[in-house]
Amino acid sequence: MEVDAFLADSAEAVQGKVYALGIGWNTVYVRALPSAHPRVSVGMTIRVPYTATNQNHTVLLHLESEDGERIPLGEEPSEADEEPKQVFELGGQFNVGRPPLLPPGDDQVVCLALTVNNLTLEKLAMFHWVISVDGTSLKRLPMRVQQLTQTLTM
Predict the structure, then answer these.
(1) Sequential DSSP letters for 74-133
(2) Domain locations in the chain?
(3) Which of 52, 63, 81, 86 has the highest CB neighbour number within 10 Å of its CB?
(4) Average of pLDDT values for 55-79?
(5) CATH says 2-147 is which class?
(6) Whole-prediction pTM
(7) Is residue 146 a contact partner of residue 30, using CB atoms and an 8 Å limit?
């Protein structure tokens, strides 16, 4: 399988297409740390080979630091008396069928968008969004967290 992906301010997958706003950035500027970035969306297309159609597949997305440490994406909702659990990956399963007139050897395309709201960023560094399908890492999207520098004009 092949994955094409991008970072965006917002993205949705609707009826086999990805609709996105603020596409193609790779740097988050912060004034101070820790900082909460309001929204990060990862839009993606997965090319499913002819021989891999009509099968269940699992796609997962996680964020890694430079040293491979997984970064929490948020917390699971919990009951009032329970300690919240951190979420380190997003994803799900997909199964794309093979239409009757699909020529042998042609790929099918699956479009997806995954969004993280209020991502807590705790250090200035290079991070990577890692997309894996069926346990194999297929795409790494870089995202640098950088200090916002302020220039004074007089």
Answers:
(1) EE----TTSPPPEE--EEEEE-----TTPPTT--EEEEEEEEEEEEEE-SSEEEEEEEEE
(2) 2-147
(3) 63
(4) 94
(5) mainly beta
(6) 0.91
(7) yes
